[in-house]
Design brief:
With about 180 residues, this protein is an alpha+beta fold. About 40% of the residues lie in helices and about 30% in strands. The protein has a 5-stranded antiparallel beta sheet with strand order 2-1-5-4-3, sandwiched between helices. A two-stranded antiparallel ribbon has the order 6-7. The longest helix has 23 residues. The termini are far apart.
Amino acid sequence: WIVTVTSIDITDRKLAEEQLMAEFRLRQAIESSIVEGITTVSLEGEQTYVNPAFCRMVGWSQEELLGATPPFVYWSPEDIEHNHQVLQKRLSSREPVKDIELRFRRRSGELLDVLLLDAPLRDAQGNITARLASIYDITERKQAETALKQSESRFRDISDSSPVNIFVLVRRPNGTYYFEHM
């Protein structure tokens, strides 16, 4: 009988596996703590990544969103053409595209206003392979802006139609006050 025993040192492989698992756990922790939505879209328009915050924002699961192509289910029907034009602009740009305001639709049908910040993703050779977007729900801010504009308009209407002079007491930065005619 001849017995041959071979041994291979797998210490380096084990260390690499442990490092990969640590990086994976860190990525999961970061993903779960981010409050804004993050998506990636390939240059062909396929949605290749959505984070959990984006799924909560729009109400669809990752499984339902990944692999989808335009028009995306979270695009409001009346905004499909506009959103498609914005997507085409993003996909053809070589630079980041900032401050894009869009309207999305939640699974429930409720509309939400979003602010999108977009950047190209590049491979090791510097070629753009996809676009990454950070998406912020600005619905409450837009509602507050609308309410403020309505309030200002009502005040202006009252002021313009009033038979008496209207003054507003205004505080200066130095703490003194003055009257301003409306």
